[in-house]
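Board notes (copied after class):
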Amino acid sequence: MNFNFNYLENGIKKQKILRIKLFLNVKNKEELFQKIKANEIDSAFLNPVYIVSLFQIQVACHNVMNSLSNNHLKTKNLHTELIYYLYPGKSVKKALEDLGIGSNNVQHILECKFIDSNENSNQNSNEIENSNENSNEIENLNENYLIQGEEQKNIVQSLNQIIDLPKIKKLYKINEKELLIGSLEDAVVLAMSTKEF
């Protein structure tokens, strides 16, 4: 699944594509984690039990693009910036620990990869937005890793089956009263969005 996000670079409008893939029952998580620590992977690998919807990722990406446009990244790269903006607190280290794949109990991986839209010069960027039919060209970019797991075609449905409600409530400090007046997605996005205040 792919989404387009705009940003400004020296006053010029540019675009990044966010490619999202979900893998269940990953067998080589430890190898992938070591490659991340060695800076050999240019993707964000998330523990998907904390991701309630793709809208949650889109909100975080919007914040990443704002930071990029203003030359004000809080982390080393766009992928760690994405993890930071998904987290409800201000600690980059805790964000990576809690939402990343370093924990022993991570079985599934949600991969989020920012791609410059000019890497796919064969296509008009408007054709790529929210499109799965054109995703083969994006997916065939040279990668120096392979995720050994079951790739899910219906990411939304699969996320709904694997989220961990008690962990989400604890991480985002959501109480039952909040869920009486709004959705879980609302509460999570609110916690992410208000951490800067």
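Comment from the instructor: The chain has one domain: 2-193. The two ends are 32 Å apart (CA to CA).
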